[in-house]
Amino acid sequence: MLSFLSFTAHWLYKDFGLQNRVLQTKNFTDFYSGDLIRSVLEELSATWDITSHIYVIMRDNGPNMVKAIDESLFEGKGCFIHTLQLAIKASLQVVNVNDDLTSARRIVTQFNHLSTVQEKLKNIQKELNLAEHQFV
User: Fold this and answer.
1) Which residues cross the membrane (predicted)?
2) Which among 33, 51, 34 is positioned nearest to 42, based on CA atoms?
């Protein structure tokens, strides 16, 4: 399995224009521990001479990344989207949620194949002065 650590910089220009660049990508050939990640991050920041310009490091929530940043010179923040993705994935493992999603998909599929029902929905939305919506 290939594993990479990408070192990406994000900054604002004086006019607050957002800029970003991938500065370097490091290939890990072996298991990468928190200590290894920390040393690579510190090495990369020193190589690019930007250590004093790093205000926060956005990271995923893997234990090795948390350890690496917590034990480094940097402040780290967990990525909200990664946290949300993990929560959604965990919720889909719950049997009732998965069954409900399956049922909802079947209903929407059936609904989308019946033009008379779609027409009825459109008419009801018009009567109630609602924007026209469709099931997806």
Assistant:
1) none
2) 51
